[in-house]
Specification:
The protein is of the alpha+beta class. The protein contains four helices and eleven strands, in the order H-E-E-E-E-E-E-E-E-E-E-E-H-H-H. It is elongated and about 85 Å long.
Length: 293
Amino acid sequence: MHLRTPHFMRYRCGFTLIELLVVVSIITLLISIMLPSLGRAKDKGKQTGCAANIRGLDQALNVYLAASDFIMPMNGVIIPKPGGNNTAPTTAYDGNGETDVQKWDLQYGAIWTYTSSNRKLYLCPSDPLTRPGSSSTQMPLQRDPGTGTISVGPGPNGYWSYSVNTVLNSNGQFRNNFSPRGGPSLTAQPWSDPLRTLNILTPAEFVFFIEEDNASNFNDEVFDAPAYNQGDKLTNRHNNGGNIAFADGHAEWYSEVLFDQVIHPSTPTDHASAMLSPYTRMFFPDSGAFALP
């Protein structure tokens, strides 16, 4: 005789529609909470990779200095300038600067051999690889994913994510804009030429490399001190800021807003007021002491 299970003892299988909707809602909520965190973690990872790259360039320059009697390169820390680095081919450049093709020939830069010939060090993982074109539009760069070689350029603007402090160029013209203690009537320049590491008073506060804004029309692989530049900008690709590497080998993140809003001096010779900005002082080996009374 087959006994039937009483109605009140029967077990129900499956989900009701309401239960399914509750589960879906919970999963959706969890995803919405996790996605921003995952995005931030991914961005943080790229920022860390960028910091590692700029430190790598910093270390390469320090090795170069140790092998060069601690004298800064004549010119062209990243890429050579016309009439600067003696290893540059004589026909590589036109009269106005680097040609489009030679811009990415990093092997002629002063620190190339000290980077283990690693092109990837010169590009931030978050760099969108666009640069301003001649018509002020953003043009894409083409990068080989294996070698990091850039094969198509944007014209006169820079290819690389990082720029070097202009003062590092031993025969650079930038320092000729400055007068030593006592005012513009004196003719002597604030640092000896060539510039040596012994001229750097506080290596932990003196900029070697800076992560430059890819949208800047002034991106040319060199970076002038903030109070004196006319368009060089720190990038904002890492949480509204970018990385800066210092002479002692360490790198730090800085806010793009604070860095790029440094007030310019009221007159070209108003050096003392320009040095009120700590960001400007970071670009001078004597921390701007030459401009003080």
